[in-house]
Amino acid sequence: MEKVRVRFAPSPTGGLHVGGVRTALFNYLFARKHKGDFILRIEDTDQTRYVEGAEQYIFDCLKWCGISPDESPENPGEYGPYRQSERKHLYRKYAEDLVRKGHAYYAFDTPEEIEAMREKLKSEGKGNQQYGYAVRHTMRNSLTLSAEETEALLKINFPHVIRIKMEPNELVVFEDVIRGRIEMDTSSVDDKVLLKADGMPTYHLAVVVDDYLMKISHVLRGEEWLPSAPVHIQLWKYLGWGHQMPKWAHLPLILKPDGNGKLSKRDGERLGFPVFAMHWTDPRTRETVKGFREFGFLPEAFLNLLALLGWNSGTEQEIFSLEELTEQFSLERVHSSGAKFDFEKAKWFNHEWIKRTPASGLLPLVTEIYRERGIENTEAEKMAFVIDLIKDRCTLLPDFWDQGYYFFQRPGSIDVTPIVSKWNEKKDLFFNELIRTLEVMDFWNSANLEHGFKEIAAVNQLKPGELMLPLRIMLVGGKFGPGVFDIAAVLGREETIERIRQGLAELP
Ligand code: GLU
């Protein structure tokens, strides 16, 4: 088999949507699995849609996910440049070659002329108002003008584009690795512009020329590009490269949670979940949306959940490391039907990954969350211990704050509601005795604390079960947290005693 070379080819037009990252991931996995190359190519030929910062954002997202390209604008290989805007000089000759071969033509129509054509077709009740085989012989182009006229217009640099000449009633047939045999009729496709008046290629020309020049072996891209496939396939053939055409694989759409249509940024806003990989600030509106990273997802979990949006291993296994995904991934196991996005399931993946990640791996992330909330001096050893104590209770990274801040700062208020109605003098006496015992306890650890606590309860003929909730509420402020003696062990003698004292003061 020829060397596998695949590309992720985003346009820098905004934040990177989960669908985009999933495309990048599948390309990455396919390349790794086949010991091939994973290329990042920036498709920025549409300057009107160019958004400041969007390119850097793509680099940063891939870095955060840990799926770095082998060749990219940042790390060029021998097929550069990797930004289409920097390849502008390459494309014209291919477009002109197509004109020479009769598969494309110069079109000199002004926007007004095109608009007039559309209006006319509309008034005649024609549903299809595209610039294509049905109307091109009525327009101002090198098919209707004489060679001399065309030459003269080109000479004076009359604004023009180059359009593909799509032959109608042809069946474009190709094998999609995921979807099988696909047949598409060329009649529904218009004469797409290949080269614009400013000399920039359009996406259609650039994608084909670059996939050819960069020796791309497989095109793995979203299903939304399927309607463009006939144009691309015809271009491959018209340019004389048909025998080198890459294999096609159109990945299933990622659908809204209810399965009704493609997942959009707006769904995330409406339903309160992230749709972008990382936070994205639109430079024009300054509007910021939080991404998976800011919601508190681990990159491992993010990749894992993305991999299963459209692919499965054929087994019950759901948790996969990037290495396992690389070993097990195959395009044959990618489904053709859309994959519903389920945020609850996404959180489940994160919870599983938090549980599996050693405290040392979580430490910098959790420390940062505490720092952002004003707690700077979280001693690393203590924090690592706390992380291990509470990580089973954390689904998203900010939960490490809610589940653990009281180890580092006294709770602002404590909620005694669950215990106040059953509070009595005996309990009050118990806690006072407990304080005296704790003051002189030899070895401050969880086991000794539990032992001492239960002994005093027995002497006072009280059930330890009834005393544990009050102790918990005094120490953490509410009905949550890990084992209460573990908590006291971490808090230390002085702080534990002080919190019990303060708790007693709030009770009758
Ligand atoms: N530039 C296209 C995009 O923005 C790439 C489509 C393709 O992979 O051919 O997704």
Structural summary, described in words:
- The protein is mainly α.
- It has four domains: 1-73 and 252-356, Rossmann fold; 87-205, Alpha-Beta Complex (Glutamyl-tRNA Synthetase, domain 3); 358-407; 410-508, Arc Repressor Mutant, subunit A, CATH 1.10.10.
- It has 21 helices and 13 strands.
- It has helices at residues 18-33, 54-65, 88-100, 111-123, 147-155, 203-213, 229-238, 265-271, 292-295, 299-307, 322-328, 343-356, 359-372, 380-390, 399-402, 417-420, 425-440, 446-459, 464-476, 484-491, 493-506; strands spanning 5-8, 37-40, 104-107, 161-164, 171-176, 180-185, 193-195, 218-222, 247-251, 254-255, 280-281, 288-289, 339-340.
- The protein has a three-stranded antiparallel β-sheet. Strands 1-2 form a two-stranded parallel ribbon. The chain has a two-stranded antiparallel sheet with strand order 5-6.
- β11 (280-281) and β12 (288-289) form a beta hairpin.
- α17 (425-440) crosses α18.
Q: What structural class do the secondary elements suggest?
A: mainly alpha
| pLDDT averaged over residues | 96
What's the number of helices?
A: 21
- Radius of gyration, in Å, reads 32 Å
State the share of residues found in helices, binned by percent: 40-55%
Number of strands: 13
- Intertermini distance: 80 Å
Main sheet: which strands, in order across? 3-4-7
Largest sheet: 3 strands, antiparallel
